[in-house]
Amino acid sequence: GLQFTVSSSRSHHVVMVGSQAELSCQLSPPQNAQLMQVGWFRDRHSQMIYLYEDGEEHSGEGIQNYMNRTVFLKDALEEGKITLQIYNVTVFDGGQYHCFFKDGHTYEEGIVDLRVAGLDVQINVQVLDTEGFVVECTSGGWFPQAQMAWRDSSGNVIPHLSKSYSQDGAGLLHLKMTILLKNSTHGPVTCCFYNPVTGQEKRAGIVISGERFTQNSVNLKASHCCTCQRRS
């Protein structure tokens, strides 16, 4: 057969939890791959997701959690392109995917690195007693490890009273962080999250005055956020 190399559409592919990923590989130079053996696997050949040979498609038995969530697109095989679609992406789908083309004794593969991210912030405010407010920021449904901090109106970090992590069955992370505000006339405080994979930042702010508090939450890109500057 002809000599060829394999190029992947995007070596780093970032998708959000619950969304769809589309991973592609292309022969270079483009050529018909309909008579080749082609496929996708995870870290090893034993973890085959799809195998296509002799005009037939075989779903891999090595990886159960891809059942009913993947589609192998072969309509561009004449141009030497194969695509793997993964639906309802989970944290556990993150990692390397290998595509391969085998023509006689010629074998080449490409690697696509799928990075999965999730970010969801809720906020809870709890009054401890009349001496002060314990304010708790609770986050859930994000991945990977995000940076989190409470900041005052000047953007300075407020030392936390307590901090606890947990991970749910879907592999998503949850974090609780509390601070103690000594008096009830404290200015606005903001709970900030920064996800290093997506560059996404979320913040939820609380203004406390007397026995009342108001809260607001904003979802914005990191570059637009001034109160949540992360340490470089």
TrEMBL record:
Biological classification of the source: Eukaryota, Metazoa, Chordata, Craniata, Vertebrata
Any single biological process term in GO: T cell receptor signaling pathway
MF terms in GO: signaling receptor binding
Subcellular localization(s) per the UniProt record: Membrane
Domain of life of the native organism: Eukaryota
Keywords: Immunoglobulin domain, Membrane, Signal, Transmembrane, Transmembrane helix
Chief subcellular location: membrane
Span of domain Ig-like: 18-99
SMART domains: IG, IGv
Name of the protein this chain belongs to: Ig-like domain-containing protein
InterPro entries assigned: BTN3A2-like_Ig-C (IPR053896), Ig-like_dom (IPR007110), Ig-like_dom_sf (IPR036179), Ig-like_fold (IPR013783), Ig_sub (IPR003599), Ig_V-set (IPR013106), IgSF_BTN/MOG (IPR050504)
One CC-aspect GO term: external side of plasma membrane
